[in-house]
């Protein structure tokens, strides 16, 4: 049972980190702006 709890905590942490990264990206890139991630 302890292993399942650890896995659940890891999953929640990954989801939380994903949401933080998404919100950061949305704040850094203005709506409608296109950024090229691969330099030419």
Automatic annotation (TrEMBL):
Superkingdom of this protein's organism: Bacteria
Descriptive protein name: Signal peptidase II
Native source species: Streptococcus pneumoniae
């Amino acid at each position: 049972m302890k292993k399942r709890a650890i896995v659940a905590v890891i999953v929640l942490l990954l989801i939380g980190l994903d949401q933080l990264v998404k919100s950061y990206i949305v704040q850094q890139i203005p709506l409608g702006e296109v950024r090229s991630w691969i330099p030419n």
